Amino acid sequence: MHTSNLREIAPNLELGQDGWWSSRQLSAVSYPEEGNALCFSVEDSSFWFGHRNRCILAAIKLFPPSGALFDVGGGNGYVARAIQESGLEVVLVEPGLAGVRNAFNRGIRQIMRATLEDAGVLPETLPAVGLFDVVEHIRDDRGFLTGINRLVIPGGRVYLTVPAYQWLWSGEDMLAGHSRRYTATTLRCLLEDAGYTVEFATYFFGFLPLPILFRRVLPYRLGFAPRKVSEGAVRSDHELGHPLVGRILQMLSRRELSRIAELRPLRMGGSCMAVARKG
């Protein structure tokens, strides 16, 4: 799909002088305004973002898209860049100006500054959609995924990641604009209710539930929830710290990646991932 063809599937888009497409109106989204800037400050050096990318790419390799993958709510283009560098066609769909600018500077070739609704995307025109830590921000997640289903071509795929386990809910979820967390079962049921056939579902970040419980959940339940997300706190969460910790996490992440590549779902993790097909 060439950039010039985006207007054919999303008639509300206009090409700006900055080099990306924008919708004529921009609806509010459940994501903190400073979120893209905070993520951008850590993404390239973060073990978490790096491992998530590798898991996403492994799933995409196992279940490839039939055309361009629309990375909806793709923020700064960190995932989109990895998909683009893997040789696949990707279109970043991001309403936030800061994220769009960062993605453009990262070399993402096709960008829509819009939501799918504001862009006026036509039914059954999207070959594939990526929703990487997006659905948890949507209050009506079933309605949202049903709407995505109408836009995806017959047989098209949707790739998702979401945070896992409601018992891991903390102040960070509130500050991030989350509405809920999921299990692999609830995510599968949600997708099936929205009209998809789930091809693969798994947990990942199996080594994170306990650290999240002690670093975030217990302080939150004891009344020590943070009032805002600071750059220092974000950096602390994404730094490996002691070299031994880094080596252990690298070993554990390689095991997870190997299981995903062999289509062997993990039974526990800080995040869930699913691949689903329309029809």
Explain how this protein is built.
- Helix 3 (47-62) crosses helix 4 and helix 3 runs parallel beside helix 12.
- The mean pLDDT is 92.
- The protein has a nine-stranded mixed beta sheet, sandwiched between helices.
- The chain contains twelve helices and nine strands.
- The longest helix has 19 residues, at 243-261.
- With 279 residues, the protein is α/β, with parallel strands linked by helices.
- It is globular.
Kindly summarize this structure in a few lines.
Strands 1-2-5-4-3-6-7-9-8 form a 9-stranded mixed β-sheet, sandwiched between helices. The protein contains 12 helices and 9 strands.
Which features does this protein show?
alpha/beta, globular, single chain, about 280 residues, 12 helices, about 40% helix, about 20% strand
Lateral strand order in the biggest sheet: 1-2-5-4-3-6-7-9-8
Overall spatial form: globular
Strand content: 15-25%
The total count of strands amounts to 9
Task: Summarize the topology.
Blueprint: H1 6-9, E1 13-15, E2 21-23, H2 35-40, H3 47-62, E3 69-72, H4 78-85, E4 90-93, H5 97-105, E5 111-113, H6 116-119, E6 126-132, H7 141-151, E7 152-163, H8 171-176, H9 184-193, E8 196-204, H10 209-221, H11 231-238, H12 243-261, E9 271-278
Parallel strand pairs: 2-5, 3-4, 3-6, 4-5, 6-7
Antiparallel strand pairs: 1-2, 7-9, 8-9
Helix pairs in contact: 3-4, 3-12
